Amino acid sequence: MSSEAKVERVEGRGCVLRGDDIDTDRIIPARFLRCVTFDGIGAHAFEDDRLQAKGNHALDDPRFAGASILLVGRNFGCGSSREHAPQALWRFGFQAFVGESFAEIFFGNCVAMGLPCVTLPRAELTRLMDSVDLDPQQRLVLDLASGTITSKLGTQAIAMPDGARRQLLEGAWDATAVLLAGGDAIDATADSLPYVRGFAA
Amino acid sequence: MLSPGIMGRSLLDKVWDLHTVRELPSGQTQLFIGLHLIHEVTSPQAFAALRDAGGAAAGPPGHHAGGAAAGPLGHKAGLRVRRPDRTFATVDHIIPTDSQARPLGDALAEEMLQHLERNCAEHGIAFFGPGSGKQGIVHVIGPELGLTQPGMTIACGDSHTSTHGAFGAVAFGIGTSQVRDVLATQCLAMARPRVRRIDVAGKLSPGVYAKDVILAIIRRLGVKGGIGYAYEYGGPVIDAMTLEERMTVCNMSIEGGARCGYINPDEATFAYLRGREFAPQGEAFERAVQWWRGIASDPDAVYDDRIELDGARLAPTVTFGITPGQSVGVDEPIPSPADVPADERAGIEEALAFMALEPGKPITGTPIDVAFIGSCTNGRISDLREAARVAQLGTVAPGVRTFVVPGSQEVQRQAEAEGLPAVFRAAGFDWREPGCSMCLAMNPDKLRGRELCASTSNRNFKGRQGSPTGRTLLMSPAMVAAAAIRGHVVDVREEL
After folding, report:
1. Average pLDDT over residues B226-254
2. N or C: lower Cβ tally within 10 Å for chain A?
3. Across the interface, do B26 and A194 touch by the CB < 8 Å criterion?
4. Full domain range(s) for residue A158
5. Does the ipTM exceed 0.85?
6. Chain A within 8 Å of B102 (Cβ-Cβ)?
7. Does A182 fall in a domain?
8. Residue B227: which residues within 8 A CB-CB, separation 6 or more?
9. What is the pLDDT of residues B287-330, one digit of tens each?
10. A178 is a domain residue
11. Quick one: pLDDT at residue B68?
12. Which of A88, A101, A8, A75 is closest to A48 using CA atoms?
């Protein structure tokens, strides 16, 4: 992913993962964090949930195979700050998340990777999930510029905090370059802080 | 006197404004980070990204933080760490708690530790490793070394960074890409959170602890109630707490969904910091105290939301489910799905099925297989003292596995000086070396199969403690020690 890349829309099929408060330990169990790169981590997305579901997990549902938009519930990605969670989901094939709400660190990690997390009110989300469940082959179009998602249901208004939405739309989601451009102002701020100066007289 | 129309400001607003480098085109703030703590799990990919960020991506030409071969260390490409003097490292998640001898028994863990050692050496970052005498859980050592101070912004690639808010710091847990950002720029791009003031009134009863306070807050506000908010904790119960207790409260802010949690600095904060290795010394300390006082929220600060809890009504609290918000007072029955709002029903049903607990039954009497005392939530010396006070009343029940894990080598030394390991061992508890241990099972300490663990840690998620089907009941150190002795959940107030 390049920092030049503007993220304006994500198109593709949806995958319906129901349930609230799905935490990052479930998305990627801790034993797969024993690594020094993210390579290969996509294969372990939701591994323990999938083993226990014995094939009945959304990520193993052949109807959703190849989906690029994951539909989730409330407070998705809560818990551990591990970026391994969105890394695993992205490497599994998801390029965007639509849910009722997202835990903040997960959301921030996704923005830093150029992955949109957008929200729908619960009733609207349930309608969309039901529609994708009934017709998993339908094409979803998530359009950040217009703030909409389009499906067989028509067009629904999605929400996303404006700062993050603009980072994606302007291709400024790889924050390192943006922050480096702060240049001397970073040092000026640092030097203005008494504790950075050691509380010198 | 304030001129009319000028409203008091919260600590969050003051710290935010002081650390603002500039407003970004996205509308977010470029925020200077005063202290960056790193560990072995979330940093290797960030250092690799720095290395890979050669040439074009390395920032404006000629700027001292960017550019190939720009650094004094002579890197052939990539970005260097901008403020190694404000970056500190330790190893905690993967370290075994039976022996810290090298090489570590798990080759993957040893590789992660070696990566951290190499990255710190290459970039001139202080590393508190196993042989340093200062190793420990990152959120335990930051405060005990005096690195964590009021008015700072703090970041760490770990969600429990909120712990440091106990000192009146604004402390964010971040992911690996943001670790890279902080390494390269000592800044984060962030949106300012709203502030919710949470007052805990009254006085806690004996046997009720800081852990019970934060579990009760999360039960009341929910695990997503804090999204978009910083939590400011205050009121008589918080004011009366030691800094270690305040750390327990702030630690679990993230479990309530808050971006961070903090407590205004006061005399107890200053007394804790005086004389610590990295705290200001001598006259500089007195100047620091003056500045720290000014950082606290103004008495007339305006908040986006306020709630109050009555501390006197709190009981020892125990989770029964698979989120930290699913808890009951130890004297209450396990709730039924019928008792909760319709859109929470499925969550309760899923929780009870996973936990194999019956609605309507008391939580007391639930048999346990494992007892874990430790973690960044409850692995400090005062936690071990409270657990030991209970431990000396009996011996561990047959068949219960136990782990008592000091949060740091300093906590370990202090406990040894007080004779706590002997108390635990005499009662049949397993006293171990410092680390994250069974909180998250990235090391050999794990649940097996369907084991049920009484745990002082912070998360009862499915599979959190290392067995995909393992079960966790969160509670205070005294409650865990009592459960270990009785072999089932008990009300510690009846044991003391």
Report:
1. 98
2. C
3. no
4. 9-172
5. yes
6. no
7. no
8. A75, A101, A102, A103, A104, B257, B258
9. 999 999 999 999 999 999 999 999 999 999 999 999 999 999 99
10. no
11. 32
12. A88
